[in-house]
Design goal:
The structure is a homotrimer of 397-residue chains.
Chain A lengths: L2 H10 L19 H19 L11 E6 L5 H13 L2 E4 L13 H7 L4 E8 L6 H17 L8 E7 L4 H15 L9 E5 L11 H10 L5 E5 L8 H14 L2 E5 L2 H5 L4 E4 L5 H13 L2 H16 L8 H5 L7 E2 L19 H6 L1 H9 L1 H13 L3 H11 L7
Parallel strand pairs in A: 1-2, 1-3, 3-4, 5-6, 5-8, 6-7, 8-9
Helix pairs in contact in A: 1-2, 1-16, 2-15, 2-16, 3-15, 4-5, 6-7, 6-14, 6-15, 7-8, 10-11
Chain lengths: 397, 397, 397
């Protein structure tokens, strides 16, 4: 397992002293060295597992998951990451709990955490709420730990909020790094993060926001394109601008899918809802105005329908670098003629990229595991070396 | 643990090279040697556990379960089998997932399987659908493995489909083998697989089909009996005929419960729905014809009510071999005067067989564990020997 | 880990030979020595975990949970306790099972228990039902074990019934013991277990009953107070009287919150439903009389509203011993102005006790683990010594 030495040397070169005991809310709160450490540990854990070496650093302990929206891949990624490290998942199903009985966030957070090493939360439906909720939970358990109620302080991992979808964007980015053979090859590469038509509405903004918030840090040209009216959060636009300036990259915005795709090395066409509409919806829900919500839905679907040309077609793909940009999607995609009549992407394009798409998704469990590992483990290099030298088989037989 | 040597010698005598990496869809796709290997490994794992020896061959890893119908015993049997081998169960609850968002089977199968070593599926409601769905999942994850998206190829275990209920029939058969002291004592024994009245309708055909598809392989006389109109799938009838011919046994069909019970060594009276009605129901569901479904339900209940005499009574039991045939049921049974007014079996008969019935059910976790074990482990004899010599206690204290 | 020696010596001084293989239904069925053994083992397991020593006594095995009422903290406490000892939780979700299909308790209990080491049940809704149900389950699995269907006999742990809430009362009591520095300091201390106003109705009686049934055993003065008409079960009153007499303590009853609080060292103000009303409700449910239930709800809410003065205010707290009684609650509490307009406790009182309240709750996982441990482990002192000397890290890294 000489390869472990390579990962360890990579970590040696990074300043990651701030990660121990930290939570993961937004990628842009992490330094570039820290971001690179997550990739390094994710790859190291993956290599060990591929080599049938157990990476269980916990003998017992719980990973608490709280999904306030349906989820398949993030749910299973979180479950896989916990299992890989030795934690058992306990789902906090709000329907089965007493949370409705007027219990505070602070109380629930403490009550489920007596033996919790990590808490993963998806809360992406309402603008201004999800990320704030996660911080409230993280603050509560930190206090609980300091007060001596909790024997360990659970790490908070953002499994998608109203602002960012860090486990997704980080997995996407690791896919890009591997595809292009290292971050040293990314300088000047162009990625098109574009809106695309979908017959559904209200898809979260956290994917495009997560992408422009992270991928502007690698010296790439990041082109955000969407129809007028589909703006994302202004704060994240500012983050992307700052990142691009700092990394020697470029961040552009336009209302043209064609412009974004032109000579792109990577394309990420995906539907999302207008930020302002989501803000309005949040307020309507807050006011319990169900008629208003229905009217808004109708309005948004009609607005979407004006932009059916925003589809990732074969013709558009031909305009990318040598006609073979890397196509990304967080899945599930709305595939024209397959999952809907008219959608985000042509069936033939999607089909050609199926294998890379699944590979893209395969990074998520390891990214989440790396987030837990680097928050929990005080001396990551030492622990990786010990896991390798311990050499306990993952599968015995 | 000298007994482990006996199991290993039994396996040495069998040709089981085809099991490594294989899925389990239908018992009749397995050779007789392979079937015997499942019993041998199931018994070996059970002996080790009874001897407080850990049989965990996985240090981490997931067992994915997907139940498209309610389940108690199969759900807990799958969970027990996974736990016994060291896998953590993750339930793919379709209600909590994004599957409804138009995602393909291929995609979901890959997305949940990045760290899955086994996938267990129950999908028994619609004729022509369940087994086909399982094969689609198995094909998808095999491709995902070959494409390098999945680091391991999960084994597919059929936890009940429209055609077969292999974990049930295999557990039932192991109960029979143990009861009669070995397969060498089964030649010429008579088993009556008969329909029985139930006030509910639409019970799956997979139990009688599984029984006649498996038990005809042991040289027994298998008598299938049901009222006219309650035919099972013609393909499975053909399987039963071929099996009986090949094993030197007999397969008979009749419309008389009395004839089937006469001199039977084993009786398995159980309600099921007519194959043609289930096919019709599948089409009605496909067409979304809810009125048609309601009408069909009414018709089927009325049809059932014509056959209330199909009950396993004390008088019928007296006509079996020496009046003491082994009574089998997959549970739960419709017990006359207990769980319903008129049902499949008299309360006194059921009560007399309660202990053997629970023993029958107790084999299922081990059968499922054996299915996983023989698909995953390359050299089963060597691994069994190692588990025994490792001698790690299952319970320490 | 010299401290383990202290716990072992404490156990040496107790007669606990009756605990091996026993279930936990009601605290008053346990001897005082046995009760002290649960605290000793709970504290020992907690010390080991705090010292990063693994307390897994199971290499595999299942803990079955059955919650017939919503639950957050008891659910997570049970899950934490199982995880701490090495058991995987499998939830018996009656909605997903076939239990509705007329299956008997005896059958279900056996069917889920083939690899179960413990069964935890919450069933607190109907008077005369919950505890009886638990005993039926325990009897069924004991028979299943004796019949050879189950390889091990699962321990039954009462996670709240109609009579007692032993894991709650035991955790509360351990909090008291630690707060006052040992049971030797409890003699003569006064605890007020009082009703308090809540805008909801029908809260279980098991908390006050559990408290008076347990805390009367320590030579304390236990004062039960509630408005007229809010009587608890007469049987438990008898238990409390007997306990107080035997322990040299006092048990008083009154209709005055003021009287109970006066000079109290500990206060436990909490809403509950009148026993007779709950009995009536049970009968109405039994008869399917939904109109009767609605009428009863209305009547009970109106009755509650007559007693809004039963609130734990700052003024009342001032009347306790030196104005600083230890405030207890099982949580979640109805906090005036926070979770409801008028409730059980003033916000400022609750807030001042938040840290101790969470500490109180933190004992529950360890209490449950101790219940499992002492039922499963034949020689508790030896096993604790071995866990300490084995010194396997809980977290490796």
């Amino acid at each position: 397992m000489a390869y472990i030495g390579n990962y360890i040397r990579k970590l040696d070169a990074l300043n990651i002293s701030g990660l121990y005991g930290s939570d993961f809310f937004l990628t842009w709160e992490k330094t570039f060295d820290e971001i690179m450490a997550f990739y390094t540990v994710a790859d190291a854990l993956r290599s060990l597992r591929e080599d049938n070496v157990s990476t269980k650093i916990f003998d017992s302990g719980l990973g608490i998951s709280l999904f306030r929206d349906n989820s398949t891949r993030t749910r299973f990624s979180f479950g896989s990451a916990c299992n890989l490290l030795g934690l058992e998942v306990q789902d906090l199903d709000e329907g089965k709990s007493q949370i409705a009985h007027g219990e505070t966030v602070r109380e629930t957070a403490n009550m489920v955490s007596f033996m919790a090493d990590v808490i993963g939360i998806r809360d992406d439906m309402y603008i201004g709420k999800g990320n704030a909720y996660m911080r409230e939970v993280a603050k509560a358990v930190r206090e609980g730990f300091l007060d001596g109620n909790l024997e360990q302080c659970p790490t908070l991992v953002n499994l998608q909020c109203d602002i960012d979808h860090p486990t997704q964007a980080m997995a996407d980015m690791n896919h890009i790094i591997r595809h292009f053979g290292g971050i040293e090859n990314l300088k000047g590469k162009k990625i098109a993060m574009t809106w695309a038509y979908s017959p559904s509405y209200g898809k979260p903004l956290s994917v495009p926001q997560g992408v422009i918030g992270l991928m502007t840090r690698f010296g790439m040209e990041v082109s955000l394109a969407h129809p007028e009216g589909y703006e994302v959060m202004p704060e994240v636009i500012e983050v992307a601008k700052r990142n691009a300036a700092a990394s020697g990259g470029v961040f552009t915005q336009s209302n043209s899918m064609e412009e974004a795709f032109k000579n792109a090395d990577i394309v990420y066409p995906k539907s999302w809802a207008p930020f302002k509409a989501m803000e309005k919806r949040t307020n309507l829900y807050g006011a319990g105005d169900m008629d208003g919500i229905k009217a808004l839905e109708k309005e948004l679907l009609a607005q979407n329908a004006n932009h059916k040309k925003w589809e990732c077609t074969e013709n558009l793909m031909k305009t990318t670098r040598e006609g073979k940009a890397l196509y990304l999607h967080c899945l599930p995609a709305d595939i024209t003629g397959v999952s809907c009549k008219e959608g985000e992407v042509a069936a033939s394009v999607f089909d050609r990229y199926r294998v890379p798409l699944y590979k893209e998704a395969s990074h998520k469990p390891y990214i989440i595991a790396a987030m837990i590992f680097l928050s929990k483990v005080k001396h990551p290099q030492k622990t990786l070396a010990e896991l390798a030298s311990r050499g306990k088989p993952r599968f015995f037989g």
